[in-house]
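Our preliminary data section would be incomplete without showing what the modeling component actually yields. Below, a chain of 185 amino acids is followed by its predicted structure, encoded as tokens that our downstream tools consume directly.
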Amino acid sequence: MLAMAGTLPAQESVLVLDPAQTRVDFALGDILHTVHGTFKVKQGIIHVNPATGAAAGLVVVDATSGESGNGTRDRKMHKEILESLKYPEITITPVRILGQLSPRGASQVELKGLFKIHGTEHEITMKVAVQIEADTLTAATHFVVPYVQWGMKNPSTFILRVSDKVEIDIHATGRIQVEAPDRSN
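Predicted structure:
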């Protein structure tokens, strides 16, 4: 999802995510059990300059698609916590890739970027496990969103206490394209 390798250092690499093969899973713990759910990715394209590590692009997650398997809980999540009618998208804007990518096989990199949720951007660093085979890239990352610290409501009640952080796992698949640098300047 979040990185790619070009065969020539002077060329920019572009990763185009396949939304049908990309998923965002979440887990929110409470005192009795952990709630698991998913969000759908709408689109994603990431540009990387392998020579400098500079990155750009946008991954868009449909905030309104979040579901945990419990309609009552999901309505509360959308209405009171995410306010997904007001903020229908969650985005990741890559800024920099740190680490070496193997042109084939497994690699581990860090993606630095901006994570926008509930209308506000937050700096984030994600460790990403990458697998490249031919022109296909698969990637997985795990990170924590401190949603209460970031201004969203904690759904805890007097009896039910939930974590103020949500665990996020992203599993992505996309196609790598290598583009020649723009020399029109």
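The beta strands are 12-17, 23-29, 34-48, 55-67, 89-98, 105-117, 120-133, 136-145, 166-179. The chain has one domain: 12-179. Preliminary results of this kind motivate Aim 1 of the renewal.
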